[in-house]
Amino acid sequence: MTNTVTQVHLQKPARPCADFPKSQPLRKTRIVKKLATFVAGLLVSVTAYASGGGDLLQSGTDLSDRASLQRGAQLYMNYCSGCHSLKYLRYSRMAEDLGLTEDEVMNNLNFTGAKFGEQIQVNLTAEHANQWFGKMPPDLSLITRVRGSDWVYTYLNQFYLDETRPLGWNNKLFPNASMPNPLWELQGLQHAEYGEKDKATGERPVHGLKVEQAGKLDEAGFRTATRDITAFLEYAGEPAALKRQSLGVWVILFLALFTFLAYLLKTEYWRDVEH
Predict the structure, then answer these.
(1) pLDDT of res. 14
(2) What are the pLDDT digits (tens) for 147-202?
(3) Using CA atoms in the order 122, 126, 129, 133, what is the torsion angle rounded to 10 degrees?
(4) Is 84 within any annotated ligand binding site?
(5) Is residue 120 part of a domain?
(6) With left for phi above 0 and alpha for psi between -120 and 50, is residue 54 left, alpha or beta?
(7) What is the pLDDT of residue 203?
(8) In sequence order, what E strands does 41-155 have?
(9) Which residue from 56, 84, 193, 241 could staple onto 150, CB 3.0 to 4.6 Å apart?
């Protein structure tokens, strides 16, 4: 007996302790933690990509404000449509949604000679775009859906003069942007206020912006103008949003009426039921 007991104590385990299966609750907890960490990291990455860095200004756009959308359309066509198309929006659809006549659109908002039912394109050729900007300016139909309205609004407000850039302009939100400030005559000439030089990169970060030469609009007027442009681009990204908003009111009223009728029906059914 003694020898047998000794033999059992001296026997090595058939498999290392690390090979024994772990408890299921612990394993599930670790899996959940890993998934949560992955999702959190993904959300942070997407947010950082969409924002382009920096603090965003609140655009305060209102798609129910038709006057704002009309002003935004006029500003966009006058200052942006020379380079940036809206290929997913037609002149006819814009006129219908914004309460404009065909003559108003064709005489005041169409500078390419396109027909009323055609998409909003540009006359800028790829050859000229490569010579002037190094590439073809992007279509802006979906810019607010990709970047967000606050990003677009902030971007339009944060151009500043920078002699080190090929076109003489830079942007605080999107450094080294490859386009000049299209609204400079409205905003004026804005200069950057730099902080102390970063020891690691050797660069001086932009801490603030200041208009040193006034434009046609004061600060409040320019903010309104860029808000209108942003609202128009938000509409262009999803024209159906206007009809969906107006339809939503009727849907809510219908649901409220249906709920009231359902309550009356329930009361009638249960009236004769003994409790």
Answers:
(1) 45
(2) 999 999 999 999 999 999 999 999 999 999 989 999 999 999 999 999 888 878 87
(3) 120
(4) yes
(5) yes
(6) left
(7) 83
(8) 86-90, 119-120
(9) 56
Neighbouring C-beta atoms of residue 169, cutoff 10 Å: 19
Going from the C-alpha of 65 to that of each of 16, 70, 144, 172, 225, the distances in angstroms are 72, 9, 17, 29, 14
For residue 271, being part of any structural domain is answered with no
pTM of the model: 0.72
Cα gap 215→189, rounded to integer Å: 7
Q: Where are the beta strands (DSSP E) in 126-199?
A: 159-161, 169-171, 188-194
Cα distance between residue 211 and residue 222, in whole Å: 12
Is 9 labelled as part of a ligand binding site? no
What is the C-alpha separation between 76 and 82, in angstroms, rounded? Answer: 9
CATH of the domain at 120: 1.10.760.10
CA distance 69 to 242: 11
Both tokens assigned to 62 = 């209102």
Q: What is the CA radius of gyration of the chain?
A: 31
Q: Which residues contact 192 (CB under 8 A, 6 or more apart)?
A: 160, 161, 162, 170, 172, 206, 208, 209
Structural domains in the chain (count) = 1
Say if CB 227 and CB 71 are below 8 A apart.
no
The Cα 130–Cα 94 span in angstroms is: 30
pLDDT of residue 195: 87
Most confident of 18-22, 26-30, 72-76, 191-195: 72-76
83 is in an annotated binding site: yes
Question: What does DSSP say about strands 86-90 and 119-120: parallel, antiparallel, or unpaired?
Answer: antiparallel
